[in-house]
Design brief:
Elements lengths: L2 E7 L4 E7 L1 H11 L3 H21 L6 E8 L5 E7 L3 E6 L16 H5 L3 E8 L7 E6 L6 H11 L4 E9 L5 E11 L7 H12 L2 H7 L2 H9 L5 E3 L5 E2 L1 E2 L5 H8 L4 H11 L2 E4 L6 E4 L1 H5 L5 E3 L6 E4 L23
Parallel strand pairs: 5-12
Antiparallel strand pairs: 1-2, 1-10, 1-11, 2-9, 3-4, 3-6, 4-5, 6-7, 8-9, 13-14, 15-16
Amino acid sequence: MSHLIRGLGASGGIRVVAADTTELVRHATEKHATSPTAGAALGRTLTGALLLSHVLLKHHRDRVTLKLRGDGPLGGVIADAGLDGTVRGYVSNPHADLPLRPDGKLDVGGGVGHVGEISVIRAHAPYGEPYGSSSDLVSGEIAEDIATYLARSEQIASALLLGVHFDAKGRVTSSGGVILQALPGADEAALPLLEANIKALGQLTSAMHRAPLTDIVRNELMWGMDFEILTDPPLQLRFACRCSEEKALEALAYFTPAERAAMIAEDGGAEIVCHWCGDKRWLGPEAILGISSNEVRCPDCATLWFRDGQTRMVREQELCACGRKVELPN
């Protein structure tokens, strides 16, 4: 079972968050039918979002969204995670792949791209507006980009390890991540030892093949420093989406009544695919016809402005995508 642990080392001066995400990343890559390069990028992003949720969030209902969009063939990679241990995500082009690098490693940096942006959005439910910040991509390798983002946008110096390993058949055999942060007042003598421990560890996924993640953290990464686990038992993690038939119908409501009628006449209904998890739902004529017709659309481009039972998509006097001024009923 995928799980996450939190702890403190060096007399409370170093924060550690570590996650074994092998099963959930395997599940995610299988659902999205990713190539190895895309699967590695997705797995690292899913794991990174889970780690960030335990660094940046405070309320149990808050969510963090991690987005990387570069100039590589994968397009965007996105993940959404919370303190409840759930995460979801996808790659824009899940079948895009690249040859291995000269060192035999998957070319995730080339897949994501070296020019682009990493952004982090925190949604504070049930209060407040979402807050987001971003920084330029450094390498596209994801771990380095997240660490650079934390240093630039959050002023948090962090060491971050992320990895996903596949076997010869393209199946995930290990996946995980660790974030280590020096807290204010940390003993400076502990930092060179921490750096040496990280260097001695080598590849995280290789280490996960020889020992459980907790042992790796305690006996290798935090060797020579007291380490106290704060999560007992570990937090269970899972790949889980929040899609539903109701949300599928809401998405379908953006099509005009004429377009929805054509779906029924031509195909006998509509298949909705969730981009977050890849699940497919078939909506028959009865469900489609049940979508409320009490709506207001732009007279020029038919963009949906308002539908009965839903919050207003736009505000009065705003401009529609076509440039027309929005006029809503009282």
